[in-house]
Design brief:
Mean pLDDT: 90
Number of strands: 0
Largest sheet: none
Number of helices: 5
Shape: elongated
Strand content: under 5%
Structural class: mainly alpha
Order of helices and strands: HHHHH
Length: 149
Amino acid sequence: MYEVLLFLHVLSVIVGLGPTFALPGLLKLRGDAPSPVVLQTEYVISRYASIGVGLVLLTGIGLVSESPVVINRFGEARWLHIAITLFLIYAGLGTGFAGPRMRKAVKAAQAGNGAEVKRLLDPLDKVVGPVLGLLLAAILYLMLIKPDF
């Protein structure tokens, strides 16, 4: 069962969260008068990422309970505690902050309100997006290397 959960966990990360790395490129395509089509594409990616976060969480919980690496030693796996904490921050920022702002930005773009789109997306483009990328990279490092500290 562990191998199946591991496969599903990694697949969820790749399929659900991988496309988010296209968002900086889409930012460049968005234009000064934000394109509703590009924003809609960004929104679809963020929706899939929200689903991916849920699947990663569910399969991750299963892995913690089945993993030969942490079974009966969960308290000693500090790398896992840090990764879980970072993941919860990632999930909160992505689904609780970025997703709703993206949805509002799409509606504002469809209404032709470029100033509102910029106001909504500036924090995502300048701060939250890069932070999410760094969090995901740190989680990936912890999950692959499993440092002993």
